[in-house]
Design a protein that fits this description.
heterodimer; A: 409 residues; alpha/beta; four-stranded mixed β-sheet; 16 helices; 4 strands; B: 257 residues; four-stranded antiparallel β-sheet; 10 helices; 42% helix
């Protein structure tokens, strides 16, 4: 390998990318401006909507209110609940968000006591109706508690007798672990998604794109060795994937920072130096893996359209580990889980954020991804050295290869 | 090795070169079949043949872009199979498939290639200046290539093929699809190369161009070299005044065999 030639090729490719408006828009402008703006807008809108529902006065209709004459005494001022007194409401609409039907029950008839059944009708698709249900259940809980205490009191029985077990639960998870659990499912998903999208566009542009633009032959007639050409292209893909990941993470952090409701997340997101370095060590082999896979696909494709067909499923495959990640039980993880590409990195980042990792898990993640990357780098070099693939694509060559095997037999 | 070049003045030699591609439907496809010929220093060799005759494959093999299935190709006495990269330094290649990097300026594009050929930056810039004067693209050299006209792009392409001052020029249907003005630059390139004693391999569909420029003409048909000689020799051999008719007569004779 000639590093002087690799450097020349690398800077040429970078210069071209920096002059491609579409790539700059998708790699820098969208993540730096559009995504945070969208996140901020969505956050603010959600917050405003939540505040609106919380502060709204909600009307509810109670049938048989005479069964609990002092029901209105249980309403706190900030409950913002109003009982509809006139009319007869039988459905949830803009005027009535909850219908409560109180009926006498005969269950305790023999004991000389009476009790009441409350039937609550609500609309789960209406935020105000759900809010009314939430508030009214709290009211009924208080009614229930006070009435029960009164009955026990009448019989001179201490009310505490009701609780055979008194539960005192205490969350001992450190704040970092709690936040890590919360954001550990989101951060790896976004990070890997942005790294893939950054690497994908550039990998296609500088490999299959060269075939479309008919510049591949111009480059190949120069005395630069093919291995130097493909290695320089790989470095360019790695650089843009890292930049894309970094810019996107920064913009996401900024967007979350700007959202008032996410302030609690920022506290937990403060990374210590060790977590940062380990995170970087875990991510770099994955970037290398994605870059080499996508570059190999670009080289193997006949043109950019074909490359697009091949890379799109790779992009969607990224999401599969996250379905598993959100349901995974940390305690049941085995070392084998850390050999599964992409999933291992997502897991490792989550564990790093929760400070629950073992050194073995981190080592397996880094090492296995490096091994997979080496395989794909080797594949890139082999594909780029194959004249049929460089001038056309792997599709035909693969069929021809299979046909040749059968012809020999 | 270089003594062989000096003694015989042979710059390019091909011995029994064959190339087989594999087609999905047709199976093995022999695109070049035992082709042997040589080109001497300062010679302009025109390659004539219909589409699919193997002209592009032949020129790509000589330029070390692809390798032959069998046979030996030597450039300046050095075997392409061992010294392919070294041989590329002595070849300037131009075809309708060698486009320029449209996101770079003409100067950046040429400097990039000059540096790939191992030229120092200062020396490369002087060479670009020299070429821009000869080919008259000084005014446009700092413009991004995508904004250039076809003729201007062609000038930059020619300068790229000449940047390393190669002793061999290979032009594969380089005038295809070009207008009269852009074609003029290519014809100038060939004449200029001849004046400087360079060897030129030239393939085109325009028989008048080939006839006017070539010292030697090679007729290729179905991957085989069916005739080889100067324009006068071919005209005499096939008893006609027109090169196109010579080629058609040659095919007829070949098919009768």
């Amino acid at each position: 390998m000639n590093f002087r030639v690799i450097t020349k090729l690398y800077f040429k490719e970078l210069k071209e990318i920096l002059r491609t408006f579409g790539l700059i828009v998708s790699l820098i402008i969208f993540p730096a401006i559009i995504y945070p703006a969208m996140l901020y807008y969505t956050g603010q809108t959600t917050l405003a909507e939540k505040n609106k529902v919380d502060s709204a006065t909600i009307s509810v209709f109670v049938k048989g209110s005479e069964l609990i004459p002092n029901l209105s005494d249980y309403i706190y001022p900030d409950d913002n609940i109003v009982f509809l007194k006139n009319g007869n409401y039988d459905k949830i609409d803009k005027d009535c968000k909850l219908i409560i039907s109180l009926e006498k029950s005969t269950d305790l008839f023999k004991s000389g006591y009476s009790n009441i059944v409350a039937n609550l009708e609500y609309d789960s698709t209406d935020k105000y109706s759900l809010k009314a249900l939430d508030r009214f259940e709290r009211i009924l809980f208080d009614v229930n508690k006070e009435s029960t205490y009164e009955r026990f009191d009448e019989k001179n029985i201490p009310p505490e007798i009701m609780n055979f077990v008194s539960v005192n639960s205490k969350n001992i998870a450190p704040p970092k672990k709690i936040t890590g659990e919360l954001i550990g499912n989101i951060i790896p998903l976004f990070l890997i998604m942005f790294i893939t999208s950054g690497a994908m566009q550039v990998a296609i542009d500088i490999t299959a794109g060269e075939k479309d633009r008919k510049t591949i032959q111009t480059l190949l007639i120069s005395p630069a060795k093919r291995i130097d050409i493909i290695i320089s292209k790989l470095f360019v893909v790695i650089t843009t994937a890292l930049v894309s990941g970094f810019v996107n993470l920064c913009s996401m952090y900024l967007a979350i920072y700007l959202m008032p409701m996410s302030k609690f997340m920022i506290k937990g997101m403060k990374l210590d130096f060790q977590t940062f370095i380990l995170g970087l060590l875990v991510i770099i082999p994955l970037v290398l893996l994605f870059s080499s896979v996508l570059t190999a696909i670009g080289v193997a494709s006949k043109n950019q359209v074909e490359a697009g067909f091949y890379t799109m499923p790779i992009f969607f495959l990224d999401f599969i580990p996250f379905i598993a990640l959100s349901t995974v039980e940390i305690a049941s993880l085995t070392n084998l889980d850390f050999f599964i590409p992409v999933y291992n990195t997502a897991l490792a980042i989550k564990l790093l954020l929760m400070s629950s990792f073992t050194w073995q898990q981190i080592f397996i993640t880094i090492f296995s991804n490096l091994i997979y990357s080496v395989f794909f780098v080797f594949l890139c070099v082999k594909l780029f050295s194959n004249e049929d693939i460089v001038f056309s694509g792997v599709g035909d060559s693969l069929f021809v290869y299979i046909k040749k095997i059968f012809m020999k037999n | 090795m270089s003594n062989i070049v000096n003694e015989n003045n042979v710059v390019i030699s091909l011995e029994n070169v064959s190339k087989v591609f594999y087609d999905l439907k047709k199976g093995p496809l022999t695109v070049l079949d035992n082709v042997s010929f040589s080109c001497k220093k300062g010679e302009i060799v025109g390659i004539v043949g219909p589409n699919g005759a193997g002209k592009t494959t032949l020129l790509r093999i000589i330029s070390s872009l692809i390798s032959p299935t069998s046979g030996i190709v030597k450039v300046n006495g050095l075997d392409n199979s061992k010294y392919g990269e070294e041989n590329k330094k002595n070849i300037g290649f131009l075809s309708s498939d060698t486009s320029i990097y449209e996101r770079l300026t003409g100067k950046e594009f040429l400097l990039f290639f000059a540096e790939l050929y191992g030229m120092e930056k200062d020396f490369a810039l002087k060479r670009i200046d020299e070429l821009s004067e000869i080919l008259d693209f000084k005014k446009i050299e700092n413009r991004v290539c995508k904004n250039l006209s076809t003729g201007e792009k062609q000038k930059i392409s020619i300068a790229r093929a000449m940047i390393n001052d190669p002793n061999i020029l290979i032009l594969d249907e380089a005038t295809n699809g070009l207008d009269i003005l852009a074609r003029k630059h290519i014809l100038w390139l060939v004449k200029n190369a001849k004046e400087k004693g360079k060897t030129v391999l030239y393939s085109a569909h325009a028989m008048d161009e080939i006839e006017k420029l070539s010292d030697k003409i090679i007729f290729l048909f179905n991957g085989k070299l069916i005739s080889n000689g100067s324009t006068e020799e071919l005209k005499k051999q096939f008893n006609c005044d027109d090169l196109t008719q010579c080629f058609l007569n040659n095919i007829e004779q070949y098919e009768k065999k």
